[in-house]
Amino acid sequence: MIRDSAREYAERVLKPNAARWDREEKFPEEAVAEAAENGFLGLTVPEAYGGAGLGNLHACIMLEEVNRWCASTGVTVSVHLSLVCAPLSRHAGEELKARYLPRLASGELLGAYCLSEPHSGSDAAAMRTRARKVSGGWVLNGTKSWITNASHAGLFIVYAVTDPDRPKGRNIGAFVVERGWKGLEVGKKEEKLGIRASSTCEMQLADVLVPDENLIGDPYSGFKVALDTLDGGRIGIASQALGIHRACLEDSILYAQQRQQFGRPIGEFQAIAWKLADMATDLDAARLLTQRAAALRDQGAACTREASMAKLFASRACNRAAQDAVQIHGGAGYTQEFAVERYYRDARVTEIYEGATDIQRLVISRLLLK
Ligand code: CAA
After folding, report:
1. Ligand 1 atom with the shortest distance to the CA of 355
2. How far apart are CA 34 and CA 40, in angstroms?
3. Which residues pair with 189 in a beta bridge?
4. Neighbouring C-beta atoms of residue 368, cutoff 10 Å
């Protein structure tokens, strides 16, 4: 049912508009509003807080469908669910959950996750944003980079160092900050190679006062919240890679059947046919890895290794598929006449955000050698 409703939504709302949104770098507001109406923005939020109470496996299936037609909408929904709703559901106290989860689940608030900074990307714990304790709360100062959804988000989870004298990674708090709070400013919008309709901005925090009750967990374990959250986020990005990969495969099959050269459809040449076979096999392998990680997370089991493997494999496979899809389309694939040109650009970021390919290898190998 989830697959059917996500597919119906994606074909009706995203398919006719995705290319234009990409060209115009237009945030897909209507698509996000309709995703909320369909319940997708609260899919994994517990029923007690207004969500559908479903799991990561359901989210994974929904996200593949959404990303099949629009990776910009895909990342918008993935970040909202996996990087914002999930840490609140998993780590916040009752009062914070009751205050924010229903508004996130309904789509009244879109969520953003603020970890990276100009000087700390892969080395996330090296962040410089500071939270200074004052009576009744914390005062946040710093700059955050690459913030997905920033232009439209109503709620930001901001990570900041709460005590510079404590060891790195054990000195970070996770704060819930609302849009409009004094000192929080959404800065320059990035002009990107792909997922151009999604919102990616810098953010400044200048003396933003956050009340004590908006801290998720204790003031020093925020980095663990961030990394546990990324286990789920990486499953979301692997699902995004599945959607883009499937788009590459489906469009390439169609083109290989229609395009004639040397008197026959190019799909009859092994050079093309074998590319399709490899793309399809990679897609199934990536989907199985991704759904395994999602199912493990739904069971409450550790899934750090599996989530990283899913993202590592799915994102690389998706990029291979995008490369082959453009090659199969030849000159046509190098123009905006055919969607594979956009898939090729969109695929690239799946190997970069939520932990670059090299970081996934680091996570997996550390666990192997531990
Ligand atoms: N879950 C919970 N806790 C975890 C964990 C996990 N998956 N992994 C590690 N931890 C714990 C560790 O046990 C450790 O705890 P102790 O200090 O008590 O031992 C603590 O967290 C710190 O862990 P590490 O020592 O492993 O930390 P590190 O500084 O060596 O960093 C890293 C590890 C894997 C490199 C990490 O920094 C990382 O994942 N970097 C990549 C950052 C990233 O993915 N950024 C994405 C930005 S968000 C984004 O892209 C969203 C978007 O817009 C789409």
Report:
1. 44
2. 9
3. 201
4. 8
Output the CA 52–ligand 1 centroid distance in Å. Answer: 29
Please state whether beta strands 111-114 and 155-161 pair in parallel, antiparallel, or not at all (unpaired): parallel
pLDDT value at residue 80: 98
DSSP β-bridge partners for residue 113: 157
Structural domains of the chain sorted by starting position, each given as residue range(s) with its CATH number in brackets: 2-110 (1.10.540.10), 112-220 (2.40.110.10), 224-369 (1.20.140.10)
The binding-site residues of ligand 1, defined as CB within 6 angstroms of any ligand atom, are: 75, 79, 83, 113, 115-116, 122, 124-125, 146, 148, 169-170, 223-224, 227-228, 230-231, 304, 353-355, 359, 362-363
Ligand 1 atom closest to the Cα of residue 237 is 54
Nearest CA to ligand 1 atom 53: 148
pTM over 0.85: yes
List, for residues 5-53, the tens digit of each pLDDT value. 999 999 999 999 999 999 999 999 999 999 999 999 999 999 999 999 9
Average pLDDT of every residue of the chain: 98
By C-alpha distance, which of 109, 87, 94 is closest to 32? Answer: 109
Q: What percent of the chain has pLDDT over 70?
A: 100
Q: For residue 35, which amino acid is it?
A: A
Cα 110 to middle of ligand 1, angstroms? 24
Q: Are 152 and 227 in contact (CB under 8 A)?
A: no
pLDDT digits (tens, 9 = 90+) for 67-79: 999 999 999 999 9
Which amino acid type is present at position 65? E
